[in-house]
Amino acid sequence: MTSRSEIRFVLNGQDITLDQVAADETLLDFLRIDRRLTGTKEGCAEGDCGACTVLVGRLQAGALHYEPVNACIRLLASVDACHVVTIEHLSGPGGQLHPVQQAMVDHHASQCGFCTPGIVMSLYALWMENPAPLEIEIETALQGNLCRCTGYEPILRAAQAASDLGSPTGDALNRERNHMTGRLKALCDGRRVDVRKGTSRAILPASVDDLAEVLLAHPEATIVAGATDVGLWVTKFLQEISPVVFLNHLEGLRRIEVGPDGIKIGAGVSYTDSRAVLTAGYPHLAAFWDRIAGWQIRAMGTVGGNLANGSPIGDTPPVLIALGASLTLRKGADRRRLPVEDFFIDYGKQDLAPGEFLESIHVPQSKKGTRHAAYKISKRRDEDISAVCAAFNLTVEDGTITAARIAFGGMAATPKRAAHAEAALIGQPWDEATLMQAAACLDDDFSPLTDWRASAAYRLQVSKNLFRRFWLEQQGTGQPVRLSA
Ligand SMILES: Cc1cc2nc3c(=O)[nH]c(=O)nc-3n(C[C@H](O)[C@H](O)[C@H](O)COP(=O)(O)OP(=O)(O)OC[C@H]3O[C@@H](n4cnc5c(N)ncnc54)[C@H](O)[C@@H]3O)c2cc1C
Ligand code: FES
Ligand code: FES
Fold it and tell me: Measured from the CA of 73, which atom of ligand 1 is nearest?
């Protein structure tokens, strides 16, 4: 396999080639320290505040697609063959303020201004995608942007007014789309990228087969997909991660296939890109998916990374376990498949051998007669990690529960099925009494921990309450049910 020892990308309008890149160098440090593009701010350095939001454009199946990302945890080497757009690149047709910026001024949507470049970039991404957004769509786009002083009302008004000041069709990124697509295509030369700085090393394999080969040769390497976990190992824990092997630039891992057996999601597919296909089959996941992190993290983070990190409080494992999903793991040319629930062995221990990687996730098609729900309990509605996560999948035939898969996160050292509760449901009538009897069995299923997200008693109580909520929501209103104390 021929390789090149430099990364190449476009920054705003400029071609960049770097032959010295450390595996742990962030895009934000490169922008601010190396290029003095200080419009992009550093607030939290952990993907939470959105002050560092930039757009990254990349080719997907030949088409150029831009998404907002947190530059603070995006690793620089991963922008190979991408177009990075910072706040400095925004301008109106005649060089004046961009419509989104002008709307922010007109609606007094900035005070100290620290969050403003990040908010402008998120609203810019929204305006490009959806020039007439509903209020809920603006709120969803801003989940990953914190403003501590202005308050969100003026920002919402600015978002609604931006299209009165200009249309996305005339925007520079759209006008130059064909030209930029050509520039990025020219950067995709099909070679492995192997770039170093001192002893630090980052590898971008050329294909999925090449990834398998690289990991066999470097089983000690840190695999990086969206870096929404790994980025924090760097910025918060100052961990050494070299050598790093990136994977989510690989088209072969970014594919979604739908067939008679179900949905196959490549390990490089982001939360954002997996939403449409999953919610088509399982509409109950729509609201749940929008509760995962904020827009930037959903655009970067992968479902594969959410599984592979083995966290007991990740949001997708309980959902996938309840749906009966399975994984394909690959080492070299060898592949094996296992149910998602068997992947989690113990806290921090997954069934993944050195040199092996998660290649794809398989979600079965929805079956007739099944009843689903997924719940996330967290202190904040937006951009927060679960205290408890629960997913229900019950089959009801002729008024009797014939199958049950119920999985919880935050209740044990791993995401785990509620085996006693499931057993208490099967063969029983589909009614509230059955559900509440099953809820009582959670005492046998789980001994949760007390930590700063929730006490053990709260976790158990809220989990039992979710059985009641599930029952009430299944009674035909289709509306979320909230219980008062
Ligand atoms: C601000 C913020 C908010 C967040 N909110 C949520 C939330 O609401 N819910 C939630 O569940 N999570 C949340 N997270 C955590 C994070 O987004 C997820 O865990 C994410 O899915 C990780 O995916 P990634 O692609 O970024 O993984 P990475 O960070 O790239 O990798 C994570 C781990 O998985 C390994 N890995 C990745 N891909 C593979 C593969 N294909 N094969 C083998 N190993 C692999 C890596 O080596 C690493 O150990 C949040 C994170 C941040 C920073
Ligand atoms: S600096 Fe806060 S999200 Fe990046
Ligand atoms: S204007 Fe000050 S943080 Fe938003």
Answer: 53
What average pLDDT score do residues 190-218 get? 97
Tokens of 199: 């002893």
Distance between Cα 301 and ligand 1 center (Å): 6
Write the pLDDT tens digit of every residue in 263-286: 999 999 999 999 999 999 999 999
Residue 92 resides in a domain: no
Q: Is 52 in the pocket of ligand 2 (CB under 6 A)?
A: yes
Q: Are 270 and 154 contained in the same domain?
A: no
- Ligand 1 touching residue 267 (CB < 6 A): yes
Q: Indicate if 420 and 348 belong to the same structural domain.
A: no
What's the pLDDT tens digit per position in 65-79? 999 999 999 999 999
Is 482 within the bounds of a domain?
A: no
| Domain C-terminal end among 364, 384, 407 | 364
- Domain boundary (220, 246, 272) is at 246
**Is the domain of 353 the same as that of 380?**
no
477 CB neighbour count, 10 Å cutoff: 9
> Do 339 and 439 sit in the same domain of this protein?
no
pLDDT above 70 as % of the chain: 98
* C-alpha to C-alpha distance for 161 and 176, rounded to whole angstroms: 24
CA torsion 189→190→196→201, rounded to 10°? 160
Strand 83-85 with 7-11, pairing: parallel
Mean pLDDT of 205-230: 98
pTM for the model? 0.96
